[in-house]
Design goal:
The complex is a heterodimer of chains A (189) and B (300).
Chain A lengths: L1 H4 L6 E3 L6 E5 L12 E4 L5 H11 L6 E6 L7 H11 L22 H10 L1 E6 L4 H13 L32 E3 L4 E4 L3
Parallel strand pairs in A: 2-3, 2-4, 4-5
Antiparallel strand pairs in A: 1-3, 6-7
Helix pairs in contact in A: 2-4
Chain B lengths: L2 E2 L5 E4 L2 E4 L8 E6 L7 H18 L3 E6 L3 H14 L6 E4 L3 H13 L6 E6 L5 H9 L4 E5 L8 H9 L9 H7 L5 E4 L11 H13 L3 E3 L2 H5 L8 H10 L3 H4 L4 E6 L3 H23 L8 H5 L2
Parallel strand pairs in B: 4-5, 4-11, 5-6, 6-7, 7-8, 8-9, 9-10, 10-11
Antiparallel strand pairs in B: 2-3
Helix pairs in contact in B: 1-11, 2-3, 3-4, 5-7
Chain lengths: 189, 300
């Protein structure tokens, strides 16, 4: 089930596969209840956010994304995630109005972001660290028992073409040649 | 153990040299002074004395890398640097928040410390305010992080250095040059496992042959992200320390080794690795180590 729903991997814990809540933990010591579908920590405002998007839209039962705890200093990952849901990305793939240092979404297609915006309702608890309050809000979300969004969306990770065809098997990289004693030269010069 | 065809630049900061052909200068280490929670300056002072002593003994230069998390810590940390580090000793400042970067640069100017400062770092998230602050308060040396979120291979790293990979208007190297900064250290941006973590090491010889600039990275970050190692605490510590070896082995010039608490393990390890590299580099490539090299200091 985990492999089926959460194909991008990452630092997260899975609980109830049909749960409608996913919880993003920022600077907070808190363990969400078993009723949630998935929870995990968000650290970076780029790769971390991409994983959250990919791993929530892959499970159509998840309809609420609860973001709690103090924001991550410098990275401002929580605020950047909120900005992605609200504003999307610009032509440079930068999250519009995100306050983070490097808020770029480079490995997801726009369709995946659109799906994230449509499937997920954001519950903004930025700065909230009280267990009772967060538990209550998660319970409220669960009580709404929203219907599944439909089919899972498996986001394709955009990968640059990295495989190069080299005749020299000693090479470390296409730009350089290393001879058998360790002398490095630029290839093709 | 490599030798490069491209001429390799060597930069000096306050008497510490970084760069060159492998085997000539010792690998420079950066130890992170993180100050978790309220800064504990007594503890930091002890660790700094340790790195000064072991560096002197081994010949491996070790520079403290001060992580500044909050505005209210800028003043006390800079005062600590002024008071505790030997006069003219280099240091680096590691800051994420752009506004804290700006304020710290201004204070470093006021305290006349910029000639000893390594700015950690310029990356694709650079802001206009940061560029302006760097223009008015130019540090002696900068670390340029070749992080490209779209392409984590050595090619992607070169792309951000060269043209900004459409993430910045100009390439990161041009941005640094336009600021009048010539002493540039390239950081190959070590990423988590499953994010092409090996590319940070493979990129070292590629970038050195491309630009001739001193190159290294914080490879220990990959260890921190290898959560499976939490099941093997003893091995985790060993891997954390040993991971730094791959940098000089691949021709790199510096390693940011994580918490300064690891200094007693990392510094001798890198001195040992440098001796191996130097022996081969001299025997085959004719690269003579400088007088301060661990090979000269430790092998009588």
């Amino acid at each position: 089930m985990v492999e089926e729903y959460y194909p991008w991997g990452g630092e997260f814990t899975t609980c109830s596969p049909n749960g409608c809540v996913a919880v993003v933990l920022l600077n907070i010591q808190y363990t969400p209840p078993e009723s949630v579908a998935i929870y995990g920590r968000l650290k970076t405002e780029n790769i971390g956010i991409e994983k959250i998007v990919a791993n929530t839209i892959s499970n159509p039962h998840i309809r609420f994304l609860v973001i709690c705890g103090d924001d991550i200093r410098g990275h401002r990952s929580g605020s950047s995630l909120l900005a992605l849901h609200k504003n999307g990305i610009d032509n440079n793939h930068r999250i519009i109005n995100a306050p983070g240092a490097i808020p770029y979404i480079e490995n997801l297609k726009e369709d995946a972001i659109k799906r994230f915006q449509e499937q997920l309702n954001i519950v903004d608890l930025l700065g909230e660290k009280e267990k009772e309050k967060i538990d209550k809000i998660i319970a409220d979300c669960k009580r709404k028992s929203p219907s599944s969004y439909g089919a899972p969306y498996i986001a394709i990770r955009i990968k640059p073409a990295m495989t190069v065809s080299l005749t020299d098997k000693r090479a470390l990289h296409s730009k350089i040649v290393i001879n058998y004693m360790g002398k490095v030269e630029k290839r093709g010069v | 153990m490599f030798s490069f065809t491209k001429e390799q630049k060597v930069f000096d900061i306050s008497g510490t040299s970084i760069g060159g052909q492998p085997g000539m200068y010792p690998t420079v280490l950066f130890g992170g002074v993180f100050f978790k929670g309220e800064p504990d300056f007594d503890d930091a002072k002890r660790h700094i004395q340790t790195i000064l002593d072991i560096s002197k003994q081994t010949g491996t230069p070790t520079i403290p890398d001060f992580f500044i998390r909050k505005v209210e810590y800028i003043q006390p940390i800079i005062s600590f640097i002024e008071k505790v580090l030997p006069r003219k000793y280099p240091f680096s400042i590691d800051i994420i928040e752009p506004s804290i970067k700006v304020e710290t640069l201004e204070l470093l100017t006021e305290k006349k410390l910029l000639s000893r400062t390594i700015y950690n770092s310029i990356h694709i998230g650079i802001t206009k305010e940061e560029i302006e602050a760097l223009q008015n308060n130019t540090p002696e040396m900068v670390i340029v992080v070749a992080f490209n979120p779209k392409n984590k291979s050595p090619d992607g790293k070169i792309e951000v250095l060269e043209n900004g990979a459409h993430l910045t208007e100009r390439g990161l190297l041009e941005i640094a040059h336009k600021l009048g900064i010539e002493k540039i250290l390239v950081d190959t941006a070590a990423l988590a496992p499953d994010e092409n973590s090996g590319a940070a090491i493979a990129a070292i010889p590629v970038i050195k042959e491309e630009y001739g600039l001193p190159t290294g990275c914080a490879i220990h970050n990959v260890v921190e992200k290898s959560l499976w190692l939490n099941d093997f605490p003893l091995a985790k510590k060993t891997v954390d320390v040993a991971s730094n070896n791959s940098i000089p082995l691949f021709g790199g010039d510096y390693a940011i080794f994580g918490p300064i608490e690891n200094a007693e393990l990392v510094i001798p390890l890198i001195a040992w690795q440098d001796i191996l590299v130097s022996e081969y580099a001299e025997n085959y490539f004719g690269v003579t180590p400088v007088a301060s090299h661990p090979r000269r200091k430790l092998l009588k």
